[in-house]
Amino acid sequence: MPLLQLEGVSKKFGQVVVGQEITFQLDEGAAVGIVGPNGAGKTSLFAMISGDVKPDAGEIEYDGHKLAHLSQAARARLGIGRTYQVPRPFEHMTVFENALLAAQQGARTRGHASYVLAYDSLSRTGVADFANVSAGSLALMHRKRLELARALAMRPRILLLDEIAGGLTDLEVNDLTSIIRGLRAEGIAVLWIEHVVRALLSTVDRLLCLSSGAIIADGDPKEVMASEAVRSIYLGGKIINTLNV
């Protein structure tokens, strides 16, 4: 049985369609990338999976649980971890306090166990040295890493990564990609929206392309990126020749 399964998921905001009969599944430990132009419905898809937004139609199941009536918090406790394109730390709290709160509220740990889980999540994402620093003072790279650490502190079985490499230098992208590959090696499933295509191609084994809320391509990452539909709708036919993987 797939870990995550979507069947006919659709959503409109007024006249704007962000989901058109979206159907796909994600197996345990798999890594799937999502590409598409701005406004294609990528982040809205994550919002429907995580519980921020309710679909107009269709069904989402996670580990055999129908998610329709579950809150965002309940979904997180089941093991759905999410990062946001713009990091959302509690800026007045320290880096460690941010991770600790995620461990306590998401993983439902208490006492010493919550401290261990919080520190471990910071160590795995490379921000343990900033544990006592105010989260609001972090540079973008470390905010992105803290965003990932908070998701990990909830002990997820699946990570929804929303443009976590956006705005970073090439070296920072490489470092972050290595972390994500390591998490996948531990058995955590990954669903990753990203415009930094080379990061996806070095990590995922399947790629989806969305356009106007619909899946227009699904399959081997290099084949998807080379398809005429993706080139014309998303890439303009030029980026293919500049990919370094």
Mean pLDDT over all positions: 93
Number of domains: 2
CATH class of the largest domain: Alpha Beta
Specify the helix fraction band: 25-40%
Going by helix content, strand content and strand pairing, the class is alpha/beta
| CATH fold-level assignment of the largest domain | Rossmann fold
**Low-confidence spans: pLDDT under 50, at least 5 residues?**
237-245
Q: What's the assembly state of these chains?
A: single chain
Strand content is: 15-25%
Per DSSP, the total helix count is 9
Q: For the CA atoms, what is the radius of gyration?
A: 18 Å
Question: What would CATH call the homologous superfamily of the largest domain?
Answer: P-loop containing nucleotide triphosphate hydrolases
Distance between the termini: 32 Å
* Largest beta sheet: strand ordering: 6-7-8-3-9-10
By CATH, the architecture of the largest domain is named: 3-Layer(aba) Sandwich
Query: What does the overall shape look like?
Result: globular
SSE topology string: EEEHEEHEHHHEHEHEEHH
Largest sheet: 6 strands, mixed
Number of strands: 10
